[in-house]
UniProtKB/TrEMBL annotation:
This is ASC-1-like (ASCH) protein. It comes from Kutzneria buriramensis. Residues 384-488 form the ASCH domain. SMART domains: ASCH. The lineage of its organism: Bacteria, Bacillati, Actinomycetota, Actinomycetes, Pseudonocardiales. InterPro entries: ASCH_domain, PUA-like_sf. Pfam families: ASCH. It comes from the Bacteria.
């Protein structure tokens, strides 16, 4: 049994969680990535999180996204590797579904085909842009946004899809265990509608030039399309499991970047089938996807809190005291930064122990936790760990320049930002007064006062110490010299 770090002797903990097989094997949640990091030695770790954009996000959606940013921050500190977050906006979600009155075949049109690229961009901006910008600032983690439309048009994705077609007999029962028919949708080039289950979509040829499919449109009859990795048309809309198989296979071919799939806890079941297909395709161990499953958010019935559940059964499936913002996070009573800081606090609490993170929570329990959050959340600041001897120099006001390699987390530091230096449970808050970037540590010392970096060591000694911390490949990222001043009065020397 684990209790949260906020527990005081004689008082109940904020969080109480039972042990589990996975949690029992870990000291920290981030340790789940350690075997892959040690095996592949990536130059960058990218946390990949996908979300359908078919409505306002609920708490479960934002919890997964917040976990991605926080784990990216922790991984950067733990492994000294650049990290980013990739947000996949799934604009292929069905916007409308209709039935052919004669054949009873279901047809669907994606959000992209119904709304167009510009309107999709507006949806992403409205639901996520400010949220991600705030998360990026709060965690010092950069991010990129990629729509499914852009992903499926990329040569890598389309080439991987064609490779799986060569082994379709090996994977089709993994992708569709009940009937063996893999749902491949190739929307009509004229109207963008496609058979939902792809019942009459047929692969008629597959060779070195690509794949040719025939399909039937409700309005335009029979049509034929050709998928070529060198051409971003026609549109390729894959069912959920198949889309994830192709995506994970394609990302796994990049040996320089470790892609970590961030998924809600309900995906643990579906990934059994994806892994079966990956095995059938003889995917090498180094290319197998790395995944982290985040806490699942449940309705009182034990079902996953989902948009489809709310659409089908209404908000009546939830307790009356569930806050409106938990169903539509754009209804949070404060501003975006306040919401993000609250979520960062919540997920940070869950990450204090793997037992808290690798489990499920009801919306009511998460509501209780959010209510218990501190009235005054920590001041938002960049965070840096630092050796004790340098920490003391900063705390006493004697060290006024901090130097780091110019990795992704340092590129966002600006004059006026706050930096919280941490060491052995102690911390000191500083304000950035200057940011200067150089190609090397030697060049940096040619321009920055040596005593401002360390008043107790010569230039030669400092360079020797720095080289023990940063190997040449890290210095190759460039060097940033950060001028700092104490926010509070200096401590006694």
């Amino acid at each position: 049994m684990a209790v949260s770090r906020t527990t005081k002797p004689g008082t109940p903990g904020l969080l109480v969680s039972p042990n589990s097989v996975l949690a029992n094997a870990l000291l920290r949640s981030i340790d789940l990535l350690r075997p892959r990091v040690l095996a592949s030695r990536p130059s960058r770790i990218e946390f990949v999180v996908g979300t359908q954009i078919n409505g306002a996000p609920h708490l479960g959606t934002n919890l997964v996204q917040t976990a991605a940013f926080l784990l990216a921050k922790i991984a950067r500190r733990e492994f000294s590797i650049d990290t980013t977050v990739r947000f996949g906006a799934l604009d292929n979600a069905p916007h409308e579904v209709i039935l052919d009155p004669e054949t009873h075949h279901a047809y669907q049109q994606t959000y992209f085909h119904a709304l167009g690229k510009d309107r999709i961009g507006e949806l992403i901006d409205g639901y996520y842009r400010a949220f991600f910008n705030s998360l990026s600032e709060a965690t010092g983690t950069p991010y990129v946004i990629e729509t499914y439309t852009d992903q499926q048009a990329s040569p890598g994705f389309r080439a991987e899809f064609l490779r799986t077609l060569e082994r379709i007999e090996d994977i089709r029962w993994w992708m569709a265990p009940s009937h063996g028919v893999v749902h491949i949708r190739v929307p009509c080039p004229e109207c963008g509608w496609a058979e939902k289950r792809g019942d009459r979509t047929k692969l008629v040829s597959l060779d070195e030039d690509g794949a040719t499919f025939t399909a039937v449109c409700l309005d335009h009859g029979d049509y034929e399309v050709h998928i070529d990795p060198e051409d971003d048309q026609p549109y390729l809309d894959l069912a959920t499991l198949y889309r994830n198989l192709v995506k994970e296979r394609a990302l796994g071919r990049d040996g320089d970047v470790l892609h970590v799939m961030m998924k809600g806890g309900d995906w643990t079941f579906g990934c059994q089938l994806v892994d079966g297909a990956l095995g059938a395709l003889s995917t090498p161990p180094a290319a197998m996807p790395s995944r982290i499953f985040t806490p699942q958010v449940l309705a009182p019935t034990g079902a996953k809190l989902s948009k489809s559940l709310l659409r089908e059964q209404g908000k009546g499936v939830l307790p009356a005291d569930v806050e409106p913002w938990m169903l539509d996070t754009t209804a949070w009573p404060g501003d975006v930064d306040n919401y993000v800081d609250s979520l960062v606090w919540l997920v940070s609490e869950l990450l204090t122990d793997p037992k808290h993170f690798f489990r499920s929570f009801t919306v009511k329990e998460l509501g209780r936790l959010m209510t218990a959050r501190p009235v005054s959340l920590p001041v938002r600041a960049h965070e840096m760990g630092i050796y004790k001897r340098y920490f003391d120099l900063i705390a006493t006001g004697r060290k006024t320049t901090e130097i780091r390699v110019n990795d992704s987390s340092r590129r966002n530091i600006k004059v006026g930002n706050l930096i919280r230096f941490r060491c052995q449970g102690d911390e000191v808050l500083t304000r950035v007064t200057k940011v200067a970037r150089y190609d090397s540590f030697e060049e940096m010392f040619d321009h920055e006062p040596v005593a401002s970096v360390n008043p107790l060591a010569t230039r030669e000694d400092q360079l020797a110490n720095i080289r023990q911390i940063y190997p040449p490949e890290r210095e190759a990222l460039g060097v940033v010299a950060i001028g700092i001043e104490l926010v509070d009065p200096p401590r006694p020397a």
